[in-house]
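Students often ask why we bother encoding 3D structure as a string. The short answer is that it lets us treat folding as translation between two languages. Here is a chain of 130 residues written in the first language.
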Amino acid sequence: MTGAVVTIQVARDAVAQQTALSDWLAALPDVGYRDGNRQVAAVIAEGTFAVLTAPASVVVERIAAGCVCCVGQIAMRVTLTRLLRAHRPKRLLLLLASGEHIDRVRRMLGDEQFATVLRLQDPVHDAGSR
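And here it is in the second language, the structure alphabet:
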């Protein structure tokens, strides 16, 4: 895999998460989120466990709320590693419940474990609460 393009968005509640996900899907290139029968887009959403609506071809994973660079780092790393191995997405949306430690999250995603399989997209967007 040449590297999944990672978009990070801060979306503090279920409505903001759904809006950010819908906007992200709509902005994907014409290739979209499928390559034949293979899934090429994935989402990891932290926080609220409301159902996120996405096409069946988009992988959606949830992790519990908690700083993903501190107490939630293991859950984030395990979820991300499993998702990358199982689905090999070309695009990944990371929905965070807080933007408090974005720099640490970016460093974690760029460390040696993920450096060859992830490409971080700038900037981080804050969808806030809607």
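Translate back mentally: The first helix runs from residue 14 to 27. Keep this in mind for the problem set.
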